[in-house]
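Changelog entry: the DUF2177 domain-containing protein record was regenerated in this release. Current contents:
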Amino acid sequence: MLFYLKLYLLTLPVFFLIDLLWLGVVARGIYRNNLGHLLAERVDWAAAIIFYLIYIAGILLFAVAPGLAADSLRKTALLAAGFGFFTYATYELTNRATLPNWPLKIVLIDTLWGVVLCTLVAIAAHLIGKQLR
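Regenerated structure tokens:
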């Protein structure tokens, strides 16, 4: 249990760095240009932090732990890509179905981002986990 707590705490900054770089720099204009009519003026940081804490636990539980158990970086990466795809696609398609003018372009970009983000974070966490052992 202590191993996974350490791994979790070391994975947190990795996730934040990658996702905040995407949201704050790389894709900032994409979201503003396509979702400006829906974006809040201020981020609800409590909700964002709770999401991050839960989501990182999901990556570790569903991708990294099985990959480490199998001593397979490839397994970690594949499971993480799947986790990212299913979670982000679920979010995006729910938004598309229920929110006015949710662009298909955002569904595709964000779903792909979910795959990339989860894969990168899980690979880093897998490598960190190997070092912790």
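DSSP finds five helices and no strands in the chain.
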